[in-house]
Task: inverse folding
């Protein structure tokens, strides 16, 4: 039995029970969230375990996981910073502001800071184009970024992390009782 099944047996059964017999594959998003919580990120073992439980081809499961930016296939920091530099945001200065974000966090896009606190990713539109530069941090939007606002936030996150290390994995999701319904 894999890490997912030993960590979240009741949650898996509850997720599958939401669907008619034979339609267990419909629970794939929920199980991927649980797998991410159990494994820390979606390792090949996590994908294989989800596939086995749901009787799906691993390629299908990998395809679902790859479609959604909230599923991570690599280790990440306690704060996952998803910065939008898609075209509408870029037209409002997102590209120019990206080096500021990277410098403040101590990591470039695709990297995790040396202290393990931040992972920075550039993502496509997050549907808040009119508030660029903007980013999503562990599911929370940060809008209308300025250097001062970013400074204050980073200081706040560092202070929080020093007092109480951010939960990981993943994305600030803690135990299942704290997990919201799956977000795409
Ligand atoms: S392009 Fe960045 S939020 Fe839409």
Result:
């Amino acid at each position: 039995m894999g890490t997912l099944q030993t960590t979240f047996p009741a949650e898996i059964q509850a997720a599958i029970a939401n669907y008619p017999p034979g339609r267990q594959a419909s629970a794939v998003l929920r199980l991927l969230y649980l797998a991410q919580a159990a494994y820390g990120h979606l390792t090949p073992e996590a994908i294989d375990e989800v596939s086995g439980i749901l009787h799906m081809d691993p390629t299908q499961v990998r395809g679902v996981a790859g479609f959604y930016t909230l599923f991570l296939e690599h280790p990440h920091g306690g704060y996952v910073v998803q910065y939008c530099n898609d075209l509408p945001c870029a037209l409002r200065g997102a590209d120019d502001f990206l080096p500021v974000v990277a410098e403040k966090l101590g990591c470039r896009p695709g990297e995790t800071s040396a202290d393990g606190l931040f992972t920075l990713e550039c993502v496509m539109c997050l549907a808040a184009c009119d508030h660029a530069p903007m980013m999503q941090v562990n599911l929370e939007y940060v809008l209308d970024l300025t250097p001062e606002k970013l400074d204050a936030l980073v200081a706040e996150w560092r202070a929080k992390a020093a007092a109480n290390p951010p939960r990981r994995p993943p994305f600030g999701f803690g135990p299942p009782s704290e997990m919201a319904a799956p977000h795409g």
User: Anything to note?
Assistant: Residues 169-184 have pLDDT under 50 and may be disordered. The chain has eight helices and four strands. The pocket of FE2/S2 (inorganic) cluster is lined by residues 84, 86, 88-89, 125-129, 132, 134 (CB under 6 Å).
